[in-house]
């Protein structure tokens, strides 16, 4: 007990040493003044005892306030997790500012942790959905292998689907750190579109879909890898939801790309929500392979690159996707 009291007294003195140092300096100045003036020592001691009484009263008040704050902080230190930082009324103005800074840092860390948890949950949900989706082409390949009916054309199609699912998973992960994986350059839009069309040529042939692209070309300052992913998602959606007919791709001189199909279209009540994460709408309910992430990622990527996208559609008539490359703000 004595050791504890002695330890508290030392801590208190280390916090308020300047008060007692000032008192001792005042006492020494008073002694020097008395000696220099040849005054009575009794007068000096009378003043000294009065100062000691005042110092004792101040010490008691300060120690009471200090001990309350010290006890509260000790209790906080003993807790395994500090969820909220309680306010201590005995702090000085500077100490209150430090406390506010600590609270601000604590809130920032809580927001960061919440964001990390949300990202982890998104990735976990996507992994589960991705595992379900990729089973379909793998099952097709496995069935062809078991029955001995392996066809080069069908195998190429299923491998293309698997590759697209893998690419979407990688892009979804990269999207979380978009600004760390970006390289702006002056690129040809026409060249990127034709490359995607070439990769999907087997799908066009398999579904007997006509595809056309005009000759006009324009350049845009963007990231070629991210932009190619956008074109892949939009064109593959057009192929997937167009049972018959054609897909027209038009590059305009106002820096817009229009991708128009004659597919099943999108219901009007689904259009406002097609860019929401995980939203599949009516078309997604009739197509079990829909993830609800493709258009969400397309919209987010284009916004980050400073571009824009709008979609117009009519059921059983077709869908028109307009990608606007008139640079706005790069995020």
Protein described:
Helix content is 62%, strand content 12%. With 331 residues, it is of the alpha+beta class. It folds into two domains: 2-78; 109-324, Heat Shock Protein 90 (2-Layer Sandwich), CATH 3.30.565.10. It has a five-stranded mixed sheet with strand order 2-4-5-7-6, with helices on one face. A hairpin with a 3-residue loop joins β4 (246-252) and β5. α4 (93-147) runs antiparallel to α5 (152-175) and α6 crosses α8. The longest helix has 55 residues, at 93-147. It is elongated. The model has no long low-confidence stretch (mean pLDDT 80).
Task: Describe the structure using short key phrases.
single chain, 331 residues, alpha+beta, Heat Shock Protein 90, 2 domains, two-stranded antiparallel ribbon, 12% strand, elongated
Number of strands: 7
Please state the CA-atom Rg, rounded to the nearest Å: 37 Å
**Name given to the CATH homologous superfamily of the largest domain:** Histidine kinase-like ATPase, C-terminal domain
- By CATH, the architecture of the largest domain is named 2-Layer Sandwich
Number of helices: 10
From the helix content, strand content and strand pairing, which structural class follows? alpha+beta
The average pLDDT value, as a whole number, equals 80
Distance between the termini: 62 Å
Q: Tell me the CATH topology of the largest domain.
A: Heat Shock Protein 90
GO cellular component, one term: plasma membrane
Enzyme class: transferase
Keywords: Cell membrane, Kinase, Membrane, Transferase, Transmembrane, Transmembrane helix, Two-component regulatory system
GO molecular function, one term: phosphorelay sensor kinase activity
């Amino acid at each position: 007990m004595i050791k504890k009291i002695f330890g508290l007294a030392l801590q208190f003195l280390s916090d308020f040493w300047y008060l007692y140092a000032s008192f001792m300096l005042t006492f020494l100045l008073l002694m020097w003044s008395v000696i220099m003036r040849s005054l009575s020592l009794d007068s000096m001691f009378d003043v000294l005892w009065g100062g000691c009484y005042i110092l004792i009263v101040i010490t008691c008040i300060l120690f009471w306030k200090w001990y309350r704050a010290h006890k509260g902080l000790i209790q906080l230190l003993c807790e395994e997790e500090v969820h909220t930082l309680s306010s201590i009324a005995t702090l000085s103005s500077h100490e209150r500012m430090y406390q506010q800074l600590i609270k601000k840092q604590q809130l920032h860390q809580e927001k960061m942790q919440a964001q990390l948890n949300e990202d982890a949950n998104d990735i976990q949900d996507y992994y589960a959905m991705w595992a379900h989706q990729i089973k379909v082409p793998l099952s097709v390949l496995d069935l062809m292998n078991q029955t001995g009916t392996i066809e080069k054309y069908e195998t190429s199609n299923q491998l293309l689907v698997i590759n697209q699912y893998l690419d979407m998973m990688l892009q979804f992960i990269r999207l979380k750190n978009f600004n760390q994986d970006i390289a702006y350059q002056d690129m040809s839009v026409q060249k990127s579109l034709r490359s995607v069309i070439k990769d999907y040529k087997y799908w066009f042939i398999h579904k007997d879909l006509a595809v056309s692209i005009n000759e006009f070309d324009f350049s845009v300052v963007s990231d070629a890898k991210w932009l190619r992913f956008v074109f892949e998602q939009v064109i593959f959606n057009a192929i997937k939801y167009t049972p018959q007919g054609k897909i027209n791709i038009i590059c305009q001189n106002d820096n817009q790309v229009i991708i128009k199909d004659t597919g099943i279209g999108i219901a009007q009540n689904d259009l406002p929500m097609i860019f929401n994460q995980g939203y599949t709408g009516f078309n997604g309910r009739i197509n079990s392979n829909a993830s609800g992430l493709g258009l969400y990622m397309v919209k987010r990527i284009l916004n980050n690159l400073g571009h824009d996208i709008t979609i117009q559609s009519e059921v059983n008539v077709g869908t028109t996707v307009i990608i606007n490359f008139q640079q706005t703000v790069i995020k």
